[in-house]
């Protein structure tokens, strides 16, 4: 079991708090023992304890500096100890041992987990400890009479898995049954994970090569995709570099290793929002996988009523990575990819509060984000009602395949360079991320062309800010910006330029998640007033100087637009440079004028989004950097 908690760079951040029974520290050789209920508060640099009486925090009674702690471990309860002293653990620091008692094993595991995390970089961690109490001048486990006597039991160093003491590591795994959607034989070429651009997949079944041009495939093994021309055939290479034949492509059963392709992955969702979401669902075993507050890591958040039937409990498990790059959760069942690990825990609790039963996707009527056929059958779409209208025509709410709510952009003839769009659409469909509005497919057999996308029930971000902005908390405004930044970080990594990022081109989902929409679509607009930088409809107020002067688009010009979008969010949907027209704004910006600080944005935050408006593109932060900077505000 592993808890994720915010980066511990702010000393006052409370990482964990709770009531524990504390044994007197017996600082003298023989001293009477007593037990007191104390409120323990763990911060990044110290563990404090306070008097606690009638539900109220009292005077501070002491603290242990984190840097002084050299071991946290369970202790064997003494014979005949009362119920409240069944779950002891020890915090060894300096030459003392602080013994505390949790109310149950889960609570003890949680404390051990978090404490082991915070001390993990301490320099003098013990490798051996005493599993028995120090009492009446000696250790009950080994009888040694010096409190500083070397430990008698080798410490289990699995820092994230207190349970491993009781479970043999590497116990054989129950087999993973074949996935339900056996129809789906191949997935699009995709990157192995969010940090690399290598296109990698995992074989779902063993496959015997049909001739020398093919590779034998081993179930569970990773392969790189070199080309992927259709949904069923692709050219692959194994990790040793052996390729399937030069001109041939191989028919394989592959399953994506990329978390973005699964409905349970929700991207950057804060711990608080994850808990809200899971509690709203209130369903035993609802779970999500989200970005952890530790960079590049993931957390599984899980809801269960096993411990508290009335209110339920949400647990957050950090996805651990072993030294050889395998993934695991509570106990050391190792997997090549996170999807494989999740699939295993969907069937086996294996140390979790319960098994991962239901991905807590926010909209039950959403079409699955699966990349398959891109030309869809018009007859399978039933138009329901108009949602709005945009550059290409009307946008309609519709039902696809009789069950999925989708939005349809109905592209009228003459509004779009449709041949170019159709050519590109397939590539655009491969852009998949929880913070991008999913493109399900197109109907291009006649006009109006249908562009079928994920339906976002709260409509466009700009309208949402204008109509509901006042109801939003500052943390929600930040979450919205982070969502957009998250989606844009993905586009940046995929080297895809949006070209028209603005609040009007983002959409708000049922749970207020914001997703980036219309990426790359500006290229297909047939309207000079929109496409020419001196046109009346050109988004001059979101455009970087190099776009206005030389039509030079890049991820860094998207960053400029993102700064303006943040300004829109923090002004709750105001028009940028309201009193000026496009020509005046172009002139003002070239002279160094910038948007003012909105009242709702702190000076520190304004500094971050102001950095997006550096005259030189290379001096602006990347989306990846912005994401980290903004996330620090979220932690605070
Ligand atoms: P365009 O990009 O063609 O100019 P928009 O994407 O701005 O058009 O769509 C126009 C309006 O339709 C939006 O302001 C929004 O209210 C609504 N809309 C568009 N796409 C969706 C969607 N996927 N889900 C819900 N509403 C949408």
UniProtKB/TrEMBL annotation:
UniProt-recorded Gene Ontology molecular function terms: ATP binding; non-membrane spanning protein tyrosine kinase activity; zinc ion binding
Domain SH3 residue range list: 196-262
Residues noted as binding ATP in the record, renumbered to the chain: 409
GO cellular component terms, A-Z: cytosol
PROSITE patterns reported for this sequence: PH_DOMAIN, PROTEIN_KINASE_ATP, PROTEIN_KINASE_DOM, PROTEIN_KINASE_TYR, SH2, SH3, ZF_BTK
Domain PH: 13-120
Keywords attached to this entry: ATP-binding, Kinase, Lipoprotein, Metal-binding, Myristate, Nucleotide-binding, Phosphoprotein, SH2 domain, SH3 domain, Transferase, Tyrosine-protein kinase, Zinc, Zinc-finger
Domain of life: Eukaryota
Domain Protein kinase: 381-634
Catalytic activities: L-tyrosyl-[protein] + ATP = O-phospho-L-tyrosyl-[protein] + ADP + H(+)
Domain named SH2: residues: 264-360
Keyword Disulfide bond: no
Pfam families assigned to the protein according to its UniProt record, in alphabetical order: BTK (PF00779), PH (PF00169), PK_Tyr_Ser-Thr (PF07714), SH2 (PF00017), SH3_1 (PF00018)
Record carries keyword Magnesium: no
The protein's required cofactors: Zn(2+)
Protein name as annotated: Tyrosine-protein kinase
UniProt source species: Chanos chanos
Gene: LOC115810181
């Amino acid at each position: 079991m592993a808890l994720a908690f915010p980066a511990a760079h702010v000393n006052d951040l409370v990482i964990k708090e709770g009531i524990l029974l504390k044994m007197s520290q017996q600082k003298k050789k023989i001293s009477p023992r007593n037990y007191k209920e104390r409120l323990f508060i763990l911060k990044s640099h110290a563990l404090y304890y306070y008097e606690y009486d009638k539900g109220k925090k009292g005077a501070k009674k002491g603290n242990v500096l984190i840097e002084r702690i050299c071991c946290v471990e369970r202790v064997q309860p003494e014979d005949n100890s009362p119920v409240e002293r069944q779950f002891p653990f020890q915090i060894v620091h300096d030459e003392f041992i602080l013994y505390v008692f949790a109310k149950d094993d889960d609570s003890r595991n949680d404390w051990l987990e978090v404490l082991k995390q915070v001390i993990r970089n301490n320099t003098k961690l013990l490798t051996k400890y005493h599993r028995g109490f120090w009492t009446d001048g000696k250790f009950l486990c080994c009888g040694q009479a010096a409190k500083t006597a070397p430990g008698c039991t080798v410490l289990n160093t699995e820092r994230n898995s207190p349970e491993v003491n009781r479970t043999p590591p590497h116990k054989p795994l129950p087999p993973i049954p074949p996935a339900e959607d056996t129809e789906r034989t191949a997935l699009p070429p995709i990157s192995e994970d969010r940090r690399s651009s290598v296109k990698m997949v995992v074989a779902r079944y063993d496959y015997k090569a049909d001739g020398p041009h093919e590779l034998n495939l081993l179930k569970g093994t990773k392969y790189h995709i070199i080309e992927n021309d259709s949904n069923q055939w692709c050219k692959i290479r194994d990790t040793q570099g052996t390729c399937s034949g030069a001109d041939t492509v191989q028919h394989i059963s592959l399953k994506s290793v990329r978390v973005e392709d699964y409905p349970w992955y929700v991207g950057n969702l804060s711990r608080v929002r994850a808990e809200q979401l899971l509690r709203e669902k209130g369903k035993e075993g609802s779970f999500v996988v989200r970005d952890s507050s530790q960079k590049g890591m993931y957390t599984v958040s899980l809801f269960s009523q096993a411990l508290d039937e009335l209110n339920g409990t949400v647990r957050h498990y950090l996805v651990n990575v072993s030294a050889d790059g395998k993934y695991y959760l509570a106990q050391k069942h190792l997997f090549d990819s996170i999807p494989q690990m999740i699939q295993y825990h969907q069937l086996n609790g294996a140390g979790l509060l319960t098994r991962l039963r239901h991905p807590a996707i926010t909209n039950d009527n959403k079409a699955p984000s699966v990349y398959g056929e891109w030309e869809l059958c018009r007859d399978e779409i039933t138009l329901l009602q108009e949602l709005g209208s945009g550059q290409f025509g009307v946008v309609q709410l519709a039902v696809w395949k009789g069950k999925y709510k989708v939005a349809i952009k109905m592209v009228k003839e003459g509004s779009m360079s449709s041949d170019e769009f159709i050519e590109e659409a397939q590539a655009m469909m491969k852009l998949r991320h929880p913070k991008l509005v999913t493109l399900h497919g197109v109907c291009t057999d006649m006009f109006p062309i249908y562009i079928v996308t994920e339906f976002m029930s709260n409509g466009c971000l700009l309208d949402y800010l204008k109509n509901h902005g006042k109801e939003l908390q500052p943390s929600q405004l930040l979450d919205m910006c982070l969502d957009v930044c998250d989606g844009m970080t993905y586009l940046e990594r995929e080297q895809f330029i949006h070209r028209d990022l603005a609040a009007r081109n983002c959409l708000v989902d049922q749970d207020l998640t914001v997703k980036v929409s219309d990426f790359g679509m500006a290229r297909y607009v047939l309207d000079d007033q929109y496409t020419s930088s001196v046109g009346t409809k050109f988004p001059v107020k979101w455009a970087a100087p190099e776009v206005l002067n030389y039509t030079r688009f890049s991820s860094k010009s998207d960053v400029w637009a993102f700064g303006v979008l943040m300004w829109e969010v923090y002004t709750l949907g105001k028009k940028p440079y309201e009193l000026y027209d496009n020509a005046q704004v172009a002139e003002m910006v070239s002279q160094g004028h910038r948007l003012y600080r909105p009242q709702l944005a702190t000076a520190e935050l304004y500094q971050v989004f102001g950095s997006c408006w550096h005259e030189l593109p290379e001096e602006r932060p990347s989306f990846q950097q912005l994401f980290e900077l903004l996330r620090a505000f979220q932690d605070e």
